[in-house]
Amino acid sequence: MDVLQLDVSGRPQAWITTREAAVIYACDGVAWTLGEPCQVLRGGWQRVSGRQSRIEVHSIIAVRGTVPSRAWRQAPALSNAKLFARDRYVCAYCGHHCLPEDLTREHIHPTSRGGYDSWMNCITACRPCNGRKGSRLPEEANMSLLYLPYVPSLHEDMILRGRRILADQMEFLLASVPRSSRLHG
Fold first, then answer.
1. Helix (H) or strand (E) segment spanning residue 22
2. Running DSSP on this structure, what letter comes out for residue 90?
3. For 33-64, b where at least 16 C-beta lie within 10 A, e where not — what string?
4. 41 with 22: CB under 8 angstroms?
5. pLDDT tens, 59-83?
């Protein structure tokens, strides 16, 4: 289970392990938390009091100070896994829902003809549709798009990374995702 790390303003920064979160707790680096504790880590015993140290790790933590953030300055990295998740594993040409291994990254404007490998030029396509379109533009292949590509927001990107997301983490992230996003679907 991963912890969603935020900056003090509530902007998502990273997915971190519970052990990494415990270090932040131990260094008094947590500004605030959301949700109930998701894991309790126990440490050594205090000689004077006889009590065991314990850290309750919440699923969402905001970290004090400045946290390096590159994600909000640029478009999220494009990967097949995130692209397929963005497009909900549906071929943009035929509309069939497919398994990830049956899908391909399709360039609307083919790279062989100067197209870029970017969120706005890539959609999910099944192997037969990708092969049928080939290195042509959709209109040249007489194939139309059933949906348009878009660049995911920072909050959407955190969801698309394919982690096991707890309900309170998903609720927090979806609250900042536009209602028009396919992730609400």
1. helix 18-26
2. B
3. bbbeebeeeeeeeeeeeeeeeebebbbbbbbe
4. yes
5. 999 999 865 655 455 778 999 999 9
